[in-house]
Amino acid sequence: MYVSRRYLLVLGTFCLSVLLYVDRVGISAAQESVGRDLGLSDRQMGWVLSSFALGYALCQTPAGWLADRFGPRIILTMVVVFWSAFTGLTAVASGLAMLLVVRFLFGGGEAGAFPGMARAAYSWIPMQERGIVQGINFSGSRVGAALALPALAAVIGACGWRMAFAMLMVVGFGWAAFWYWWFRDDPTELATIDPAELAYILSHRQTGKHGADLAAARLPLRHLLRSADVWLLCLQYFCSNFTFFFCLTWLLPHLKNSYALGAVEAGLYSSVPLFCGALGNWFSGWLVDRLYGQGRWVLSRRTPAVAGFALTAIGLLGCVHAETALLYMVWFSIAVFGADMTLPPSWVFCIDIGKHRAGVVSGTMNMAGNLGAFLTALAFPYLAQWTGSSVPFFYVAAGLCGVAIAAWMAADPRRSLEVAV
Question: Domain of 261: which CATH number?
Answer without folding.
Answer: 1.20.1250.20
